[in-house]
Records
---
Amino acid sequence: MRLPIQINEQSAEPLYHQIEVQLRALIVSGQLEEGALLPSIRELAQAVKCSVITVKRVYSDLENEGLLRTRQGTGTYVAKVGEQERDRHKYAAVIDALEQAVSTGKRMQCTEAELQELFQEAIRHHYKPGGDS
């Protein structure tokens, strides 16, 4: 299985974090269904051009969160994630992104009103017909 994970080598975010955030989103959004077999650690490391240790950390972190299950000798699978747990992960990810955006806005000396307008513009852009979803 090929996972649609994109790595930005110019980003200040560590590789493991970029992979973890994207893989978590694929699971929480339901794009990866319960029981889906993930690529082996080596396969994913090769696909995203990173170390095996990086992918091992991602899989371990997501397993500790209850999103993945590893079966010795058969591989790593998407765990059963209940609706409440799915919602908790989804909202936590969105809140984190919004808090980062607000922090960036404050560093750039944006007012609260300016940030609200920028947020509304981003919503209009992403939810208009033909916009990025």
---
Amino acid sequence: MASTQPTAEPRNRMFLQVAIALQTAAVLFQAVTAGLLLSSFHGEVLHSAGARVMYGASMLYVLAAVLAWRPGGGSPRPVLYASGFLVLASVQVALGIAHLPSLHVPLGVVMFGLSVLLLGRAPSARLPERLGKRA
């Protein structure tokens, strides 16, 4: 079992990076479709479908954060970030359903900024390998 531990940890960190990247792409897609919403009927359909994908990506991010934390004994901080983002996504969906663009749009901008920040701060799955080769 000890031989599988080092390979599982980088995979979980890679999964975390992929989940954050997917979430960031989904939030960006929502911004694009929000613009389309103003100019065409198809924008509403795409924005609605994108909302479901973005919410699912936020749930996937929570799962990835838990998997990166629990088996390897890493920091629980990514789980807190992921859970907080899922709360923001829930508020965002509720604001969209309630047709409150004065709150929905700024929250979307904040969510995109936070997601890009999280993506930039995501732990690299290859960092320990690189350090091990130099040492």
---
Amino acid sequence: MLEPRPRGIRGSIVLVERFSLVPGFGGLFGEETRDMTRYEAAVGNFQVVVDLEKDAAFLPDAIRGTRTLYVGAGTVSGYVDLGALGERDVTVNGDRTKASIRLPHAVLGTAALDPNRSYAVSKQRGLLDRIGDLFSDNPAGEQAVQKLAAQHIDEAARDSGLAGRAEKNTTSMLEGLLRSLGLREVTVTYG
């Protein structure tokens, strides 16, 4: 499992150290070395509505059945995996004014449901379900609706263009970082 990585300036310094294969960059920031396997470039906040209904085949809803209307709020991060970046993926011209970097496409993380912003709008349960809740560790059946909310947030993130935004932000960060180190032209490609 990947751990959260530093952001901002510290993350940029780590990235430069990953480019130690570029002549002159190796010891630029001292001896501190950290492994940055991914650059978190974008985070999306999403809110979805889930209507989960479970019915019994031959019993009316008033006797057996549940319906939960739930608002799920959470975040999804978009990141670029830098762990496999190799010598062939970074090229610099002879006078060190132009650099070309090839990265894998951005990937979306899994949804992190925020319990402080997620809530059930309504819950309807049949008589037998209410009696069963007295003997249950999860009386309201929240786990199923939370899992469904997280799936809907993942779908919303895929449809939102978050991965494209992560690539754009990664490109901007790399261009700014490498230009501040004296390179005049930086080309970043994905794929």
---
Amino acid sequence: MLSHNAEPGSSELRLSVELDSDEALRLLGSVSLGRIVFTQHALPAVRPVTHVLDDGNIVIRTHDGAALTSRAQQADGRGVVVAYEADAIDPDTHLGWSVVVTGYARPVTDPHEVARYQKLLRPRLHRTMDHTVVIRPDLVTGTRLTETGGAGDVVRPRPEDPPAE
């Protein structure tokens, strides 16, 4: 599905192109910062976190008092439903991409897995991050915002976008 978006007052239109799930996950894996959305006291809560993509799963580290840590530990074996969003959108041109993953987050309890993830993912906060949470994607959606090409809406990729593999 293609749709045109324009900033109010702007004459420049953008083309919104839906991404397939493989491309969306590839783009998500190309950045290290995203936002996790979960339920806290029956309301949505959003936290910025760093992540790594490992075998199609999103891995984040949390601290002992984190609301997500508590929710994931209290959930049944499947985990707790979360959404995860990451993007790379230029603030001036509004070109780039956005990916949203919905799935189940569960705590990692195996000491060998925890140690491996601690090596793969270094937290950026000056805080002890001794818990690891894995999100298994069930629904992956993504959108790329590109310039329109005029007649026929030819899409011009941005040079800073990661190449397709």
